[in-house]
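Researcher: Re-running this chain for the archive, since the previous output was lost when a drive failed. Same request as before.
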Amino acid sequence: MGLGALLLWALLGPGRGVPAEPPPAPTPAVSDPAARAERLYQAAAAACARDPDNVTNAWQFCRATFDRAEFARNDAERAALAEHGIAVARAALVRHTNVAAVPYYLGMNLGQLARTKSLGALPLVREMADLFERARRLDEHFDEAGPDRNLGLLYLEAPGWPVSIGHRDRARRHLERALELAPHYPENHLNLIEARRRWGEKDLDPALRRLAELLPAARQRYTGEAWSAAWEDWERRWRALQAKAGTDVGPGAAVP
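Model: Regenerated structure tokens:
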């Protein structure tokens, strides 16, 4: 999971970073992420139907539902997919209280549902935060420090008090923790650098150079069809950071 954690933050409606429409189709040379999401969704649905009490089947179906919803044709389809994933996750959470993936993907699917509700998304945000916190307590390393990454993005993107839970210090704490737990994962770097730029911080060159230095190894570590959509997103964001920095920031900086 890489791309999904980023696209979740459209939950507060268009204009807050990620468009509500599905991402554009990749070039023919790149494996089609939408087709892959559909294949995995169908396979996960079949496995879950065969053995619905199996917690691994349940959370893998919820992950596949979230990923498939990224390519929904409209809000109705996205909401239907999300609601199916939410129902399976809630049932699994009653039976399996110590598996981090269950509250994690329940929170992710709530994010998909929130994307269809505009201002109606706000009541879901606190539940999402509680679920990601629960996942973090169970396994803070899950999905490349996904619980802290998602908490950081929630606190970053949500409106502040009294409307919602947005909070700069909490956002920083969780984004920094995600990077500490999984420093090899490009998105953890990108999220923190982008947040620091938004907050008006100036001395970002060390962070940019650190990311530039790890990119060659990351391209070897996160490779293949499963990561094509994530790399499309990461590279777009990396190019934008380079452009704002106004300079090549070091080894590995060039994006293929």
